[in-house]
Amino acid sequence: MDNSIEIDHLSTYFYTEEGAVKAVDDVSFRVPLGQTVCIVGESGCGKSVTAMSIMGLVEEPGGKVISGKIDFSGEDLLKLDKHSLRSIRGNEIAMIFQEPMSSLNPVMKIGEQIMEPLIIHLKMSKKQARTRAIELIEQVGISRPEQIADSYPHELSGGMLQRIMIAIAISCNPKLLIADEPTTALDVTIQAQILDMLRDIKTNSNMSILLITHDLGVVAEMADYVIVMYSGKIVEEGEVVELFERPKHPYTKGLLKSKPIINQRLEELYSIPGQVPNPLDLQESCYFHDRCEQCMSICQTKQPQLQEVGTQQKVACWLYEEAVAHV
Amino acid sequence: MSEPLLEVNHLKKYFPITKGLLNRTVGHVKAVDDISITLQPGETFGLVGESGSGKSTVGRTILRLTDKTEGEIKFKGLDIHNLSPSELRAIRPKMQLIFQDPYSSLNPRVRVGDAIGEALLDHGLTSKGEVRDRVLDALVSCGLSSYHIDRFPHEFSGGQRQRIGIARALVLNPELIIADEPVSALDVSIQAQIINLFSKLQETRGLAYLFISHDLSVVEHLCSRIGVMYLGSMVETASRDELFRNPLHPYTKALLSAVPVPIPKLKRDRIVLKGDIPSPANPPSGCKFHTRCPYAVDICKHQIPEFREVGSQHHVACHLV
Amino acid sequence: MITTPTKLVNAKRTKDSPVKSSLFRQSIRKLSKNKLAVSGFVVVILMFVACFIGPLFSPYTDNKINMAMMNKAPHLKHWLGTDALGRDVLTRVLLAGRISLTVGLASMMLSVFIGSLLGALAGYYRGIVDQIIMRIADLLLTIPSLPLLFIFGALLSEWKIPTDYRMYIVMLMLSFVGWPGLARMVRGQMLSLREREFMQAAVVLGLRDRRKLFNHLLPNIVPLLIVIATLNIGGAILSESVLSFFGLGVMPPTPTWGNMIDAANNMIDFQERPWLWIPPGFSIFATVIAINIFGDGLRDVLDPKQKR
Q1: Does domain C103-243+293-306 have CATH number 1.10.150.120?
Q2: Cβ of residue A41 closer than 8 Å to a chain C Cβ
Q3: Fewer Cβ atoms within 10 Å of its own Cβ: the N or the C terminal residue of chain B?
Q4: What is the pLDDT of residues C145-193, one digit of tens each?
Q5: Chain B interface residues facing chain C, Cβ-Cβ under 8 Å?
């Protein structure tokens, strides 16, 4: 077993008044043990829904995991009953969110909130849990842990709260940490601290991280392996250096070119024309075709499949399909 | 040198902290504490800072969305905070604001065309017959289509809404646009579109921007001069090239090194700052940055560093420079 | 993420469909999907049609006394029987409905007008205007409205106001106690709208006060007003009935649902002649329930807080 988690042909739909939205459409990937995999994409690409599906947070009747398999230490998370899922959630798989403030209970002391999973999952006594909670607060780089443990969420800043969220997440030594835009709401200097800390924790505890973000800079810093999503599908994935240096998919290329980089100023930024297609109105085609500069006729009528190109890179684009290239 | 378009001199904005039944003032949040900015016509000044730095308050005080506490704001030679309501109203079209959140900055019940055109009518800048043409003109120059004119904001995506917000400001032929984090709510690919739109509009219309942002990479792209704020004070101002090549204040350096760069192999000497941004209600004594500064010495704790010129057009407030 | 689908608009799709979808039309469409609300609406409309048109087809008039037909149980000629003076109960219930519905509607309109005007002024100008208006409203809200109405009613009887005028005075009374709650709600809405970014944009654009108020603030309050107004009609009808039931509202011989149920005060009528009080009672019940159901449906569609 060298994978922490393996997602196989996952599809999650949401039902709106106007029709069904394929938020995640036949997505497969794996997170190897001790590695950081980043899912990157713009809003509405399905990256967060993927995380929610893994955590079993997609709730009917709004949405539903239509098909697929989520293999976590030999068990299919989608087939587990509520009780077993609950014992895995927060214990073996932990999750942190973008808004730490809304994930914490405002009327409960920080310390108690960290102790809760320890008591529930690890069956610690109150006293043990308290000691462990204080250790954890220290571990995420907060000074005066005793005092912080006795304060309420509103007394702490956003960066501190995100640290607390991480403390709660790692409290049960999870095998996998899912972080959904963990630094998006934070200032850059605080973001740098949190990313450093996540990296340290990962190395020290041999945890795997599934990091979901829209920020290519964060991806470059954190990821071992990158998955690029667009309109609910994976359009490209690969080892991080490979993907950033030799992106294959026109969308990945465009995304990388359109981000302004410090100390590399250009007269004009490249920008991908148009906007993300309406998820209610997706036709059988490459979903990126109407924004793509290299669009061919086949792109408008047929969906490309994810194909291996090179050793550690996969891309879903007709430009790389040999059969088509020959025609 | 010609008369500057905008002159902000020693601007202070304190928000009172009140307590108890009688609303006793027990202290002040010094949101903006002695800030000076000059902006020439057609220039772009970038105001950078993290949350709590007071950068948005500067923008709002310039537009007199809130009252100043002290200092002076001159726009085209007029003291904005001493104008009568009717004088202020008359000058409003010349200085416009673009908001961060494209969702809440448009009234959901007003059609796009009306939202853009109403100020023209209200100021008597155009006759009723010509409004539509002016609106269409603004829509098209912001990359929208003429058929968008009769739609409601909810029919648009975030990027398109931001374009509508820009068109709404643009139609009045402003000379100054204050843009408060205009791209930070947008996706990367849309962000680039809007940044390019800002550049294009500046070229074609000679606009001056006060560009407020937390994102140094965006600021570098758009702004010719940049000021870095920390807890209500300016810590460094310089031209773009100077600031990025030769940052002097430790905070500027830290900020520059903290921005994640999408180049995986790049290993940088990162300065990771300790601790949190202190609360602006209770800022540290002396240099406000000393609590997080890796180079702080004793003097930093007691004495407020002077904001002084250290090179041509390069100002910095640090004892160690 | 879940909400994005509705936010996204495909450029291509919009090009193909030039149909303007207004918020109003959207709301109607959503409302029509709510079966309960639609049935409530239908009942209200039926009630209005019956009361305002029904009596025209009745062979009887309101005040025609027929000693030969006193207290008859329902039969073919008098579907709902007759009362102690031989008047046709059905005709009277319908005519009473006219009064009750008119009183409900008119007092609602008046209180919505006063309430939203004062609330809007208080919320828009704040400061001293706000203080004065809201303290008056607070004062009125501290007095329980039913006893207040009773006192008014008693005064009316004391001053021997002609019955014809009483109906109008009852309307005024009901709006008088109705507006403070409304004003408070509108004011709250105004205060929160003022802080919205699009109102700051309106300041920066240098729009005139009149435009800010009428083009920006009011349209955002209208949905709330519609909901409150609808629900208020029910309340006004109830209050009028209560007053009239106690003989403090509209007086006989002008029929209203309230003073018709007064029959139930009489032990013999209550036990022996249920046709006297069941029809008006049922009318009140059905109308108020229908209005509330419809109002709830409206709220789901129009109240922005219910939307994500």
Answers
A1: no
A2: no
A3: N
A4: 788 888 888 888 788 777 778 788 888 888 888 888 889 989 998 888 8
A5: 63, 65, 88-90, 92-93, 95-97, 99, 101, 104-110, 114, 118-119, 122-123, 145, 147, 150-152, 154-158, 160, 165, 168, 172
